[in-house]
Amino acid sequence: MIPEFGHFALILALCLALLQAVLPLAGAAVGNRHWMALARPVAAGQFVFCAMAFGALAYAFLTNDFSVRFVALHSNTALPTFYKFAAVWGGHEGSLLFWTTVLAIWTLAVAVAGRAQPLEFSSRVLGVLGIVSAGVLLFTLLTSNPFDRLASVPLDGNDLNPLLQDPAMVLHPPMLYIGYVGLSVPFAFAVTALLAGQLDRNWARWSRPWVVGPWVFLTLGIALGSWWAYYELGWGGWWFWDPVENASFMPWLVGAALMHSLAVTEKRGLFKSWTILLAIAAFSLSFLGTFLTRSGVLISVHAFASDPARGLFILALLLVISGGALLLYAMRAKDLTADGGFTLLSRDALLLANNILLTIAAAAVLFGTLYPLILDALGFGQISVGPPYFNTMFLVPMLPLAVLLGIGMHAAWRKTPPHLLVTKLKWPAIGAVVFGVVSPWIFFGTSSVLATIGIVVGLWVVASSLVDPVTRLVRRGGTTARLTRAQWGMYLAHLGVGIFILGATVTSAFDVELDRGVRPGETWQAGGYEFTFQGLRNVEGPNYDAVEGQFEVRRDGELVTVLRPQQRVYRVQRNPMTEAAIDARLHRDVFVALGQSLGDGAWSVRIRVKPLISFLWIGALVMALGGLVAVSDKRYRSQKAEEAERVREPAPATTRVQPAEGH
Amino acid sequence: MWRYAIPLVFIAVLGGFLYRGLYLNPGYIPSPLVGQPAPEFSLPSLKEPEREVGSDDFAGKLALLNVWATWCIGCRQEHAYLLELSRTSGVPIYGLNWKDDRDAALDWLATLGDPYVATAYDPLGDVAIDWGVYGAPETFLIGRDGTVLHKHIAPLTPEIWQRDFLPKIREECGSLPCPLVEGE
Amino acid sequence: MMKFLTAWLVLLLAAPAAWAIEAELGFDDPAMNERYRTLLREIRCPKCLNTSIADSDAPIAADLRREVHQKMEEGYGDEEIIAFLVSRYGEFVVYRPPLQPSTWALWGGPVALLGIGGFVFMRILKDRSKRPLDEDSIS
Lengths: 663, 184, 139
What we know:
Oligomer: heterotrimer
Helix content of chain B: 25-40%
Number of strands of chain B: 7
Shape of chain C: elongated
Helix content of chain C: 55-70%
Number of strands of chain C: 0
Number of domains of chain C: 2
């Protein structure tokens, strides 16, 4: 019965979503306040029914109801309870239900927060969100119903893909979905601004948290996925420029551009059409990602089971939603031009460069991802575009961006006297170059042009982010003005970027990879460590059997750690899976994974020594933290506080040395 | 002013490509060997290890080379049709036993029937790599001058024989007497 | 006696396979090994869902690794090995797209965009630096 209730709840949610899509927008167009006022309660109702449907599916998993096809395909009685719940989003249909539920939650949040906004505005935003909800709910009900029953009920299920039976893998999709789906809110804000034909400073202020929030979740989601791939897949890689990875990265890049563009719109009223376009693009790229993952158009290990019919439906949704928004943009954007000047050495100009460079980066990734499809469609054969292309091309816009980033944080609006920047940034710049050139030789005894550039740039960004906080700490009690939360957030987030750049450069340039066959008792060297293989034993897990190897790792004769990688066979699906053993420290990871048996007790093993790989995860966390801190600034929470801050702002283009404002 | 319409045009074009992409098969790799001379090889025969089987055997002849293995489910599926082709099509079929166990392979042919004029035994897969093989079953059509005329990946069926192989065979034979080829 | 012989036969038959796996794991010389691993990352496993032959357990990936290993031992250069694989499997099998007319847009695209971006930036800057600095489009 419960699955049928779930199905029914979904249908009701669709009905409400359709109401939510039509009435408020119609009401705003003709000025009918009753219809506009319906938006909030209808949105709340849609949320309730989506939550009920989600609950019904979760219930089916937790009670081992294998008469539901989706449960039979993705669960098993032996599956730990925690994973039974996570299995709800372990396949196409369930993850789509999850998508709609997350959208309903965001919609509810907007509805609640929108009480402080004019009715026309909030009802339009909810109306646009209603269109998206209705589209996805229709898609789910017509092509991907998670509540389909099986005619003959199996005794037990197929089990959840063992790759997904992992805590990080459980968190990764929710984080990503909250991010992807959350970008629909700025999208709705942008479409509303176009419909209303106006965009004011308050619009920019309201929008900001709804961009930073999803962006923070996207950052965490992408980082989790990368971290998981690193420790779970057993090859030591952490980013492959796979189409589905790219599909999550493009909204992140555009979301970052959007955050910064909003800053300019909020402060000076400029870049309005950029901001609107970026908001539309961010969600469109999210939705494009949904299409790429579920249509079978590109090959990826992440892709869900594909079906051209489903693909067609999502494509149609994408074209209606994005195409509709862009049509509106084509018609109305010209009314958004603004007055206001700035010079080359100004925050405005640098953020313009930021917009352009991030957009180019996203475009490069999009181009590389879709090019094989484009060539094939034009009949020019099959090619592959992979890491060799992306690793090079991504740097083309990103290296200049990282350099400018350091300057941008300290530039003033409108016009900055050059000597101010030079005074402030002279030592960070010199320090970055000197340390950057010298440190690879000190730590690794070797270097390369690319590695040096990467380290210099990473150190530059770190140093530039720390200048103001350190100065403030050192001069405590002096006349330096307090840093606002927004400023702390900015420095923290950019510090995270610098840490990440350092991690990515060093771990790519100086990692050690060794595959070899080993026999018990054998010792060998790699990456400055001495490894000894001590042998194997058999281990039984809750739903798997494993062979476990034991490896001693020493440095200069001292025992550093004992690593125990496993080769598991999950009893139901019978696929062998490797569990790498990792000794993770701040300055490096030592990574050992079992390969195959070579007979006679000998095994092939994969050894990796990855310097500074922790900086990747730390950098991402710090970025996310920075975003959260920035958005918790009280000027986003109350209008009064925002006016107070505006009054307190220093006059433009002064010659006093002042800490850069947060933006 | 028209620049504001650029994003709309962009998404329309993108949509067109994505639509087309729904009906393409991104995993299908066309073979670069088509139109090129067939790679030369010489391997021990499956049945008589002292004898050699290789590209010399079908020199000057229109022939099929079928890559198969006992662990390959698709090979099992197409086997009956291969037997039929070997009897009625008039085109000799040579086999390349790929990364298999000799005894299992001999057993298979004994139980299910042997459609091959001769089978080469490639346990390490080196010759297969030379032919660009990546997933059995694969079937190559080789012309009389040794050029690879067509490659088919996946089990061979009557429809595919009609649609892809026969036209190329007719094209190749032209007016010369060719082995009797009966369309099915 | 027969059992003993059979055991040795089995070991003998198994040994080449094990030896084959060990061979494709790498080289003893660090420089060769480095080159080998970098090369493996450039080659796509034809039957996998988008992985390089360095990162795949599929049999065809192992075969291709052995092929690359063998060719490197025979003294082939990186370009020659890639060319060999492309002649057998097509451009699909390498992750670095070739530079040919059909891929000029791919390789040139980001750089061209950078150029266009720079031009756009200059134009906007020129326009904006002529406008009054104190004015804001606030409302």
